[in-house]
Amino acid sequence: MKNKSYIGISFIVLIFGIWAVPKIVDRFKKSDLVDIGKVPAFELTDQDNKKISDDDYKGKVYVVEFFFSTCPTICPKMNQNMLQLQEAFYGRPDFGIASITIDPAHDTPAVLKAHGKLLGAKHYNWLFLTGDRDYIYNLAKQFKLYAGTNPNVPGGFEHSGLFALVDQDGNIRCRKDQFGNPIMYYDGLEQSGIDALKEDIKKLLE
User: Fold this and answer.
1) Can you say how many angstroms the Cα of residue 24 is from the centroid of all Cα atoms in its chain?
2) pTM of the prediction?
3) Which of 23, 55, 62, 169 is the most interior residue, by most CB within 10 Å?
4) What would the pLDDT profile of 153-194 be if each residue is shown by its tens digit?
């Protein structure tokens, strides 16, 4: 009788194990977001005049944008959408934002600090970064996010309205579109892009 009870218990344990293992694997498997390559190495200066590199973001999920503080066109919309991300992940030490100016001649650390305060940037990992102009433009090129000067457009500069998502290991990540192709970057001007970015940040943080 004892042998039958033992066999019965063993069978139940075996069945539970077969059911539970896939659940555990699902819980710990890598996110389904596409890995499109390492974030370019960088070293810039933040709004508190501190040197900041990509290494300072290791262990954090973060969003990268290129902007400038006097931008009269798309930046105000990008700023408002970035504030949505701040609100969604406020208080998370494993989340950050890197806002890199493409007009460093004007956007000194002091200017960026005042700009961040005016925007309502309160997350301690939201850094406004400046440095050498050519260095920043080359960095944008490595990100494959456009940045350049144009005296014929309002503000004198042009740049992409896309946001890059970087994971804890310094890999640029993205979702796929309806055809199964990587979207590469997230639309920083449309609510649909921000909603998708929120969902994918949560995936990486989990």
Assistant:
1) 27
2) 0.84
3) 62
4) 888 899 999 999 999 999 999 999 999 999 999 999 999 999
